[in-house]
Amino acid sequence: MNDSVNNPPARLGIIISMFPELHETFILRELVALEQRGIDFDIFSLQYPRDPITLDDAIRLSTERTHYSSLLSISTLGALLRAACRHPIRLARAVARVVVHGRDRPMELIKNLAILPIALHIGEQGRQRGIVHWHGHWANIPTTACWYLQQIYQQNWSAAIHGEDIFSANRFLRYKLDDAVFAVVCSGYFCNHLKTHIGLRTPDKIHLNYHGLDPRVMQRVPASSATLRATDAPLKIVSIGRLVPTKGHDVLIRACAQLIHAGQPLQLQIIGSGPLEAELKALADAENVRDKVMFSGALAFEEVLNNLQAADVFCLAPRLIPGQPPDGIPNVIAEAMALRIPVVSTRVSAIPELVTDGVTGRLVEVDDVDGLAQVLRTLADSPEQALTLSEAGAQRVSELFNQTANIDELLGYFDQYAPQCLPAGVSLKHESSSCLSTDSSRGGHQLP
């Protein structure tokens, strides 16, 4: 399977569940950055996009570099038949391993088996395109497709893990990652979990690699320090996130109600939509603060940034709920910090990697209404403290979410583990980031 049509130049194959996906702009930014660094790659999307494609880079990449296929078609079934004829033992062994190692998760097992034909079709397309290494985004189906190509066509692969479904028992994930040549993870919290809690034979292949910030945010980063807020002005608090239980909007509403009833003038704006909208509005009514809480619904990104820049404080109070994946570092927290908006959040998941209490923002315990209200009152009464936090927060984000530095890291891992997919002359400035580091310049918060 190493021969290719007309010997095309070596390329990287990237497998994604759906490209482009509206909430996965961090993947789009990474792909654009790789392209700018001279990496030649093809994108293989396991599903067709469900939403209209509006971003220029997404339109271009989906048109010029992305290959789409139906799950079952003449092409995918033909690929399965050819693999069965050419590599019957490898194919049978791969299917058996999926069943044996994935039997504890029946629904995911069905999905892993269902994508076999399209994975093999992608493998045939990859051979024609000169793909020499596969890279799968997310821990679930795309990495299974990459694993199939290793098992049947004997091609190496790597993974980019963004946190989905890594905290529940998942024997097949452990088995897959042991077969990958390396994996990158987008937060130290997730990275540490994979290294120490799922029983990998080779945990040293798991590496921390943060994302970069959206360029539309970076274009708005103030050139100078923020100004002090007048203490007699109402405190404008903005929270952004889906209206779901994990975001903790109910805690924020209760904390704001406590402050309002104590005489603190404030206005809370909640941006986002979701199933809890009616319940949260009812809570604001019950707390008698409905006139002080504005539910803006889902907004276009530019409108979100406009409202964020007009805020005095950004606040999000996430909580962990069993059976639901944690957020990691919510993008909105990093975006607020980059725009020099002081941030208040909770000590949960990977947030303490970015927000150090009293240094780059403020942290409270999960579901602590009184503690949240106290911190918000402190920032309302002390504009100087808010300004200090906002400046330190902006500096912290510039260190951890530097797109250039993080792409340097990623290219360094490809150079270390899969140099065949890098063209000659690619500039590498690789320094490995340990997910267990206590170094405040990169690794941040000491993880449990």
In short:
This protein is an alpha/beta fold and 448 residues long. The protein folds into two domains: 11-208, Rossmann fold; 229-400, Rossmann fold (3-Layer(aba) Sandwich), CATH 3.40.50.2000.
Question: What distance separates the N and C termini?
Answer: 44 Å
Q: Gyration radius, to the nearest Å?
A: 23 Å
CATH architecture of the largest domain: 3-Layer(aba) Sandwich
Rounded mean pLDDT is: 91
Helix content: 40-55%
CATH-defined superfamily of the largest domain: Glycogen Phosphorylase B
Number of strands: 13
CATH class of the largest domain: Alpha Beta
* Outline: elongated
Low-confidence stretches: 1-5, 437-448
Q: How much strand?
A: 5-15%
CATH-assigned fold name of the largest domain = Rossmann fold
Strand pairing plus helix content: what structural class?
alpha/beta
Number of helices: 18
- Largest sheet features: 7 strands, parallel
The figure for the number of domains is 2
Strand order of the largest sheet: 3-2-1-4-5-6-7
How would you characterize this protein structure?
This protein has 448 residues and is of the alpha/beta class. It has two domains: 11-208, Rossmann fold (3-Layer(aba) Sandwich), CATH 3.40.50; 229-400, Rossmann fold. 44% of the residues lie in helices and 14% in strands. It contains 18 helices and 13 strands. The chain has helices spanning 25-36, 56-64, 74-86, 88-102, 106-114, 116-129, 141-153, 171-179, 188-197, 215-218, 249-261, 277-286, 301-309, 331-338, 351-354, 369-381, 383-400, 403-417, and strands at 11-18, 41-47, 66-68, 131-137, 157-161, 182-185, 206-208, 235-240, 266-271, 293-297, 313-315, 343-346, 362-364. The strands form two sheets. The protein has a seven-stranded parallel beta sheet with strand order 3-2-1-4-5-6-7, sandwiched between helices. It has a six-stranded parallel beta sheet with strand order 10-9-8-11-12-13, with helices on both faces. The two termini are 44 Å apart. Mean pLDDT is 91; it is low at 1-5 and 437-448.
